[in-house]
Amino acid sequence: MTRTTPRSGDRLRWWVYALLVLAAFACVFPLYWMFVVATTDTAAATEMPPRVVPGGNFFHLAGLVFSTVPFVRSIVNSLVVAGTIGLGQALFCALAGFAFAKLRFRGRDALFLLVVLTMTVPTQLAIVPQYMIMSSLGWVDTLQALIVPGLANAFGIFWMRQHMTNAISDEILQAARIDGATTWQIFWRIAFPLVRPAAFVLGLIGFVYAWNDFLWPFVVLKSPEMYTVQIAIKALQTNFNIDLGLAMSGSFLATLPLIVLFVFVGRRMVAGIMDGAFKG
């Protein structure tokens, strides 16, 4: 009888899967532990070794969350803000990316370089002038103060410009112009459909970032009815006492919409990222 030995490729595949399982566990365990604390109390967060079995107080703590702060209104506010920002970035960054990639105008390269350089500036430096602008417009303590500054950003413009450059040939655009298409028609009917997966991924990234944003909403929002979900979680804590069970329960409830979103569109998001990774 001949003994078969595993090929080096099989051994390599085994190690790859083992590393992926460990990485997945490292990513999922904090979320699971957050749920464990959200079902028990503050003591569970300080136990050594950490408790890994959920308790039975989740619905009680969730009821306290909804009675302490206007949590449902905060979730709705976050959905409005994050959804509008996600759609806005997908459209406006695609427009800017199309202009930088396929249109010829004076100062294009210098302007694009300036846009890219803004990514090196910490966002915290813009809070004071941005707040002054919102105050002069009368937008303090309103949702448009969160939405309008987030409708486009340098990363999104750079992302879409790279996809436009790789996915759209100049010959197609020239043929469309010969047929009498306007610049807007070329963008909406030819360019945007070709980069729709990239725009979809950018919109999801913008949605998640806006959903998790804390600093700017904390600065500009004052009224409880205007709170986003992250500010509502902060309102669950006091200056002298932090109920970790209550805070973790609110954090878990705030994370559920993102989990549901990823369940439905996660595969499409990964496909859009991989599509951009292998083009060119």
UniProtKB/TrEMBL annotation:
Primary location class: membrane
Keywords on record: Cell membrane, Membrane, Transmembrane, Transmembrane helix, Transport
Domain ABC transmembrane type-1: 75-265
Membrane topology (UniProt): Multi-pass membrane protein
Pfam family, one: BPD_transp_1
Annotated TM spans: 12-33, 75-98, 110-131, 143-160, 186-211, 244-265
Location relative to the cell: Cell membrane
Family, per entry: Belongs to the binding-protein-dependent transport system permease family.
Annotated protein name in UniProt: Sugar ABC transporter permease
